[in-house]
């Protein structure tokens, strides 16, 4: 009774509906017996993980689907204990080192070595090596990545790595050169519509083509998001037609409200009100860059054309600062102040 | 004022000191460098026989003291007094000293009167005082003509504009006009005075008389013209500044109203000066009808706490010593070039008095823009003279030293003289006492020697040593010796005394008779107040006067619970030896049998004095001797135990007046010359900390014999107790303290220093509050313009804060560039504040960043937890979970429960199980909702909720994993090993570690949501085991190896009996 996304998730390479050639390549890689380290990258919701799981199944057979969560405790040099969750099957491990923030190096060093130093236990296994899937590889710290590079070579007989990342930008060159880069592009809107239709058929829902197209567009070519939106639409409406509105997620609704407040009034007092809402968003774990981006795109349509470039410029400026700094609210607030200022200045010029 | 002191000193102190002093004055004089003045002075001094002082302005003050009395000029002074309607002092004392002082006053006024003119010569040629020049140069007629012309011009112009406003002030005019009649007489007398006074320098007095005399005689015609001229001046002064035409237009009628008034109070040449202060500027009338307007404006402009707009543009003149003596000033509104604090300091420097609200005693109101409407009303009602800043400066420039012979100054003088008399008396008393002491000591020594001689032994060494008062600290040397010498807190001191006196009786009644003040109900009192105001002194003195022997214990003694209990118990039942014995040659003081225990610095009982406070409080309940506790801060948490057991006696800081005479006495005794205003500055600067003041003057005495205002100021500044500001104060100072006003003297370093008062919070506080100010930089803009400016400033500030955060990252990030702290200070606190500094609207809020940050961390933990549970099913990372899954899951679970009620509970639980979500995760999801899904908007029926909980608990749920927090890291065990050698034995290790593991298991099971605990079984088992382990450890501690083996055997069977499978099993699953 899980949600659509997970209920209808393809389990093998055959079931994947788009990027057929990529699926083929992965299949042949898996069958070649000489499976390289992979760096799979692409936007979220493009199907990276699904594809990797399918590939693993191709490699080891259905045994990889028997997974469990394992919890490990690591001790850092400063005697801090870290609890770390590992998703594991007999044949593979899946870790998210960015869970432990700056201590990811400890995890990478200890865990990978431990895994790499033992051979495959199951003698009947198809492959002699084990696979470690590293999620959010682009969030690994420099140190952790440096720790990885030697491990990848030294223990290659026993260990293959599959790195998952949104972009290769944050991954150091040595790692990139040691891996086979696999790009999983976001599905096109048509492909998303196709997937939605299939799901609808499986669920026995009426297919509303218009709605699907809208969802595909709204989702920003994020298939996971599209499916969840689809689910949300169906959950909140008895009868779904082409005209059914798509409910925005809670945080987006709030950002929309913030944008409205910013447009309505430009004054320091208003900035204070906006600050409270921004704090709300931040405390509820909405990443600041997402906030800034969403906010910017909600503001842009409501300002004069001549200002749009400026707004984008400042948005980018403060997004950079968010990454550089530590207290994100300062930068978000500065953006709001800047926006109000340039809009107000523009309005005043028009008036006089 | 200093003149008086000096004249008093004159009789006592020896000349060498004075000479030194004059040299010093010369120095200070040079700084001001007014050649003209010096020449004048020397003229004045010509008749004086001693040639050594042809020097500065203070010289004449002293000289007359010497020369006048022999010359027999008493007649003039007597006349002077007779005329000046101040008969009191004359009959009281007409001793030579008295006349001297009077003489000195006169001479002062004389010289300063001359000075006035000279200053106008020197400096004011193009100033607003131009008419004074005219008056000197071209003669009276021309002046008058000029004035008239000017006045008429302006007046005509005004009248037209004015017509609306006139009806209001007019009635006032009439009322005031009725007054002059009695005044005129007085003024005539005054005129004569002037003549008397100024006979030495006829030119000056002539001028003045020309100004003054016609006024009463020719029916205020001239006077009016003068006023108009003043008006004129005002206009000239501030044509550019904000004063609207309408405002100035209102002036003439008001002037008329004021003009007669001016004649009324004062006498003499001073009056002339006061009148001629071109500053008498009357924007006063507006109070009533534009009242609303004022309120509105005040709300808009935010009062007058801000910085002066045109700060630093005017030169602040150097005036005569004490020239404002006897005058009382009230400041209101925002001054043009000097901040209010500066203005007040200026007044104080020249001996004036500053009060906060106008009253009948107020001589001038210094008016700025946006004056408070209520003050304006008062001013109008009482018809107080209003001047502006220029008027104040002019006053300083023109007033003669010591306020001349003005009435107010005279009154002031009288008061001061009385003060000085008192001081002198006290000093004499003190000296007597000192002498007495010495004599007594000598007598005692003699006695001792005599006894020694009788006994045929060498005199004891102690007797030979004479009490050397000069080696004593001033603080102890001048410690009060009688109740009336204590400065301030009279009531509190009396209370202590009363309590001590009644203690024995109260003790007899078992402290059941509380008495009127409740003094009889307490065995102990607790005296509290800020440092340096004489708490300890008062306690000691009270004890001494009540005939108690004092036993003191302070922070230098360890006062832990044990020591308090044991140490005090010995004391409590004892009598003092001093009641029975005394040193050689001293009388036995029978009264000294009683003991009082003074516990000083009770709040200093710190970590080392564990339990001391509690024990002391207990002692307070049963003590058989009076107990005086002393502390600074009564409100501290750790002082709570004394709440009911001791009587609170709060000490407050004494007032300036209370301290002043004491300090003056000490100065006199020590031959240090401190003018009263310097003493006041010291008192205020040290926040009325008497001890500190005494220490300061003691230090000052080491290298100087006099101190002027500036020296005093700088000294208090240097001695200023460094107070670490609270984040709120830092924020208030930076954003609202006028630190960034153009006139502010605060350097960049000062501002950075503020940040460092609390470098962790200051910038957060700035960030929290920078949008809540009304920036001064907006200035006079209105409407949208002001809003735009505010936005621009806010943006600049925000950007600077953003910059600051980048610096912060470099400091606290991986780079650890701590040397960038000052940079951070500038970017994150000083610079933003520089943009938005102004008036803080509302209260300064504490930073919300910390709270939000910790909330974020909490919710982040929730998301992580949820994600870790969902992980087997969903591939998203935690951002995806939060942003995409949670909204959908929320509608599928919480919304459904809300809408459909308990019918859908089963399905909801199914959904949760499919994602391995626990009941806790459900709550987390509620909390993580945002905006439309906010937790506050969800209203789950209690029935639904309980059904949900019940059903959830009833069902079994799939487990994705076990938590493995019981995989204890090896380091922990090694830590637990005790460092005793015997304990290193293996068996012991086991015995110790065992209970530990057990604990871990227990905690784990409780924590882990996936494991249901069989509640019945557990405690018993645990209890049994604990008992065993306790036993084991006890034995281990006692016995040797063999016993240990035994004990282990004891333990083992029990361990086996325990359901061992459970923890082991749990561990196993966890590990795999």
Automatic annotation (TrEMBL), chain A:
GO terms for cellular component: Ctf18 RFC-like complex; DNA replication factor C complex; Elg1 RFC-like complex; Rad17 RFC-like complex. GO terms for biological process: DNA repair; DNA strand elongation involved in DNA replication. InterPro entries: AAA+_ATPase, DNA_pol3_clamp-load_cplx_C, DNA_Rep/Repair_Clamp_Loader, P-loop_NTPase. It holds the Pfam family RCF1-5-like_lid. Its main location: nucleus. It is found in: Nucleus. Keywords: DNA replication, Hydrolase, Nucleus. GO terms for molecular function: DNA binding; DNA clamp loader activity; hydrolase activity. Gene3D superfamilies: 1.10.8.60, 1.20.272.10, P-loop containing nucleotide triphosphate hydrolases. Residues 34-185 form the AAA+ ATPase domain. Belongs to the activator 1 small subunits family. This is Replication factor C subunit 5. The lineage of its organism: Eukaryota, Fungi, Dikarya, Ascomycota, Pezizomycotina.
TrEMBL record, chain B:
This is Replication factor C subunit 1. Residues 406-451 form a coiled coil. One of its GO terms (cellular component) is nucleus. Residues 17-29, 146-157 have a biased composition (Basic and acidic residues). Residues 1-314, 965-1072 are annotated as: Disordered. Residues 124-140, 190-209, 979-1003, 1040-1049 have a biased composition (Acidic residues). Keywords: ATP-binding, Coiled coil, DNA replication, DNA-binding, Nucleotide-binding, Nucleus, Phosphoprotein. Belongs to the activator 1 large subunit family. Residues 280-289 have a biased composition (Pro residues). It comes from the Eukaryota. InterPro entries: AAA+_ATPase, ATPase_AAA_core, BRCT_dom, BRCT_dom_sf, DNA_pol3_clamp-load_cplx_C, DNA_replication_fac_RFC1_C, P-loop_NTPase, RFC1. Pfam families: AAA (PF00004), AAA_lid_RFC1 (PF25361), BRCT (PF00533), RFC1 (PF08519). It is found in: Nucleus. Residues 82-99 have a biased composition (Low complexity). PANTHER family: CHROMOSOME TRANSMISSION FIDELITY FACTOR 18, REPLICATION FACTOR C SUBUNIT 1. Residues 319-397 form the BRCT domain. Residues 54-65, 170-184, 244-260, 1027-1036 have a biased composition (Basic residues). The lineage of its organism: Eukaryota, Fungi, Dikarya, Ascomycota, Pezizomycotina. One of its GO terms (molecular function) is ATP binding.
